[in-house]
Amino acid sequence: MSVDSRLRDAFGEETWEVETGAALREVHERARRARVWQGGAAAGVAAAALLAGIGSVVAQDHGRSDQPVGRPGVSQSTEGPVPVRPTGPSAIDGTWTLGPVTAARIRSTLREAGQEAWIPTVARDFPKPPLRYRLTVGQGRVDLVVTGADGARVPMDQEYLTLTGHEAVLEPVGIAAVSRYGWALVDGSLRLTYRSTSEGHEDSTPYAAFQRALYTVGDWTRVGRG
Predict the structure, then answer these.
(1) Widest CA span of the chain, in angstroms?
(2) What is the DSSP letter of 82?
(3) Cα distance between residue 164 and residue 168, in whole Å
(4) Residue pLDDT, tens place only, 85-95
(5) Which residues, listed in sequence order, are joined to residue 158 by a DSSP beta bridge?
(6) Distance CA 60, CA 38 (A)
(7) CB neighbourhood size of 225 (10 A)
(8) Quick count: other Cβ atoms within 10 Å of Cβ 181?
(9) What is the reported pTM?
(10) Angle at 174 between CA 99 and CA 157, to 5 degrees
(11) Structural domain total, the chain
């Protein structure tokens, strides 16, 4: 099956305007650079630990590759103590839903952000649309589950949450990173606006595209309170 056919199967029968040979080659080249960058960073950390006199170093990957294990945005647990974070109630505690979300809406979200080069990557790693999102917020945690067209529920993200003013700070469970969103309650709905992420450079890694596709494709409706 061709690449074009697989992408259409993943996100429906609509035409993908960015499915050109040059665009796909650029995606793969960016992914290759991301892997090289991450490998170099891991080697640097190991070398620094050795010079500091640490007897043994267990090397762990603290980033996400362009082909995540499981689904994009799913944080992989690591051993060690869990940092102490706020667990009190917040203004957005509760259960929120969003959807159904079409492939066209996801494409539009990424194009408007200037990240249309990552559309094929998102199409490959997300469930098949239309998608239904379920976001649970409480005790300083965020859990996001997405249900695809086949009805299968896929855990997509687990984050620690710190809410300050009108900024939501998300820290993936088990990964050293921070993503920042603006948040607002609009007529009772939750609107998240992407600001930044420390998970790789936006022009050479797909992490920001995943964050946008996970949290900013529409306003969230509260269906339960924490």
Answers:
(1) 57
(2) P
(3) 6
(4) 656 789 999 99
(5) 143
(6) 11
(7) 9
(8) 20
(9) 0.66
(10) 5
(11) 1
